[in-house]
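Sharing a chain and its predicted structure for anyone who wants a worked example. Both blocks are below, sequence first, tokens second.
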Amino acid sequence: MKTATADSWYETQRLTDDVTLIFEPHMKPFYRCNIWHVRGRDRDLLVDSGMGVVSLSQQVSLVTERPLTAVATHTHWDHIGSHHEFAERAVHPLEAAVLAAPTRESSYAGNSVTAKKESEIFERLPPPPYRAESYEIEPAPPTRLLRDGDTVDLGDRHFEVLHLPGHSPGSIALWEAATGILFSGDVVYDGELLDDVIEDYLASMERLRNLPVRVVHGGHYPSFGRARYLELIDAYLRQKRSLAGGSPETWSHVP
């Protein structure tokens, strides 16, 4: 497999609402984390930081132009690799210990980032010194803990923290009621959803379904609007409740 260069590892795509998508084009879509940059009046927001095999701050100048808070929607390896590069780092309390001292096991890299799986993860390999066997995530002790109902304040933009466990214990999303924008992490995106605790995931999906979401910027795959948002949530609820033998009286939103 060919090896990528450091200066080609990231690409950016400017969207509306002062949102920029940063992504790692040499990773295959299932593993490719969406890194979201949001410009505010007083400071910027970074939602997740990718795999960390190439310095995000050195290769993408956008993330170093202004004060910035780097939020981890959860602490899986593909979302927190570059968090250590930023002075202000935020995460839910249940996953603070992982961000502070990640291991291959706690970040779930141990079963994913292996030489045998490189053809599944990459279109091109990361540049040296990357090696699958020695891949580690740098510690990034959080400077702020984000609990359900907290606000990430950019001055003119305000994002409410939603604790949505199920994919991981401390999974969070960021909700901007004024614009209808949801940064959903890995709780909901337009692809195969991976649940850790199904009961928690069901409750999180029920909660999300009640939000008047206009656009979703997920942790993987392209962004989408409200119709697809409801379709994805309902499909998940219907599938999991069918498998669990749930009753209609209990699950109010499933068609």
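Comments welcome. Residues 93 and 164 are 13 Å apart (CA to CA).
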